[in-house]
Design a protein that fits this description.
With 386 residues, this protein is α+β, with helices and mostly antiparallel strands. It has helices at residues 27-30, 32-45, 59-69, 90-98, 107-114, 116-125, 173-187, 237-241, 246-249, 261-277, 313-320, 325-338, 348-352; strands spanning 6-14, 48-55, 73-77, 133-136, 151-155, 169-170, 191-195, 200-209, 212-216, 220-223, 252-255, 283-290, 296-303, 366-368, 373-375. Strand 8 and strand 9 (212-216) form a beta hairpin.
Length: 386
């Protein structure tokens, strides 16, 4: 009896870590290949026609390869192009253009979440608690920072704790100026200076269900118990990636315990409000700082968060909810498959082209809208208007 092969899935990942092995911060990108290979192997074991495809600087070539492979869905693990996280949204945008279904958030959410100061503006507008902050584009802007110390200084468009160290938390104007100048010079991007919230750091992982409400996994938090007294209670780049550092040892993720049911519900509601405000999709991790007075502040929004099996916080949270790594991967594929025949917008040719000669309504002529009648009118503006 012939075994029917399940749909084709192509797992894409960024290859921009190649050739940058001397860069310590390259570690944040290098691990993605192992995750991609693992996901492809897992899907193949489940009967899917699965392969991994590395994306180089030539994104157009990757799109051509995808069109030739004709996958039912793409499992998107591409986090940057040419070492620049700003281009994470480029491949999803091109896949939308080609009508290729893929896992994870779309280009708008990916770009918005990366520009931290812009996502914070939207969170505030939607009433989601997030620390007060200011954007600094030059040292001259520091005079306009009217915030109370301590503050934390970070690049506006990096992830994986890139650009974050113990010196990022500052307690006076001199330290703030020094750190801002360093980030401006080293990362060549605007700097976010925001209120530092002392308190528990809690991670809320969310996985959507096909046709159902999103699933919020049990919370995890960072145990700072072994952090040296002279270091701030934050997860720095060293704390996340340098395994022999004191900050790595001092930032151990553990199950979040001791919260009242009411506080748990408040944290979950805040995380889901952020999920909706930034227009996230499929899965994400929301980073929360819980202040002494019980306010959960969103400090970071992570669409398409780390999906590695053993070291990934999302996978740990899923296991705490009773889902295996395999369950998570298969559900993400299921979510993408459910979108395969449903585009977000009507393709341009279908809404602009008609059979026969097109008709342009004259000024004042009724125009049917399907739910009423509008009057066609001349373009607004004076002489020379297009």
């Amino acid at each position: 009896m012939k075994v029917r092969v399940k749909p084709r899935v192509t797992v894409v990942f960024n290859r921009d870590f190649e050739g940058a092995e001397s860069d310590p911060e390259n570690k944040a990108r290098e691990d993605i290949k192992g995750t991609a290979d693992h996901v492809a192997e897992l899907l193949a074991a489940q009967g899917y026609d699965a392969t991994a495809l590395g994306v180089t600087d030539d994104v157009g070539a990757a799109v051509i390869a995808l069109k030739e492979l004709q996958p039912a869905v793409v499992f998107n693990l591409c986090e940057s192009i040419r070492g620049d996280n700003r281009f994470e949204c480029l491949l999803p945008m091109l896949m939308d253009l080609e009508g290729i279904a893929y896992t994870g958030s779309g280009p708008f959410a990916l770009s918005l979440a990366l520009h931290k100061h812009k996502s914070k503006e939207i969170l505030r507008a939607r009433g989601v608690p997030t620390p007060s902050g200011s954007v600094v584009t030059s040292a001259a802007d520091l005079d306009g920072v009217a915030l109370t110390f301590p503050l934390i200084v970070k690049p506006t468009r990096e992830d994986a704790s890139v650009g974050i160290c113990s010196g990022s938390v500052v307690h006076d104007a001199g330290a703030m100026a020094d750190r801002v100048r360093y980030v401006l010079a080293h990362y060549r991007q605007p700097v976010l200076v925001e209120q530092y919230i002392e308190g528990r750091e809690i991670y809320v992982s969310v996985l959507e269900r096909p046709g159902g409400t999103p699933q919020v996994f049990p919370f995890f938090e960072i145990d700072f118990g072994e952090m040296p007294a002279d270091r701030p209670r934050i997860v720095s780049f060293e704390g996340k990636w340098v395994t022999d550092s004191v900050e790595y040892i001092g930032t151990r993720p553990v199950r979040c315990e001791g919260l009242s049911p009411e506080l748990q519900a408040r944290i979950a509601q805040t995380a889901m409000a952020a999920f909706a405000a930034i227009d996230l999709r499929d899965y994400a991790r929301l980073d929360v700082r819980l202040s002494a007075d019980g306010v959960p502040y969103i400090i970071d929004v992570n669409p398409n968060c780390d999906l590695s099996d053993l070291g990934g916080g999302f996978a740990k949270a899923a296991k705490a909810a009773g889902l295996s790594y395999e369950d998570v991967v298969l559900r993400l594929v299921e979510l993408a498959l459910s979108r395969r025949h449903n585009a977000d917008t009507i393709p341009f040719p279908k809404r602009s082209k008609t059979t026969g000669q097109s008709h342009r309504p004259e000024d004042g002529e009724p125009v049917s809208t399907g739910g009423g009648v509008l009057r066609a009118r001349a373009p607004r503006g004076g002489a020379g208007s297009a």
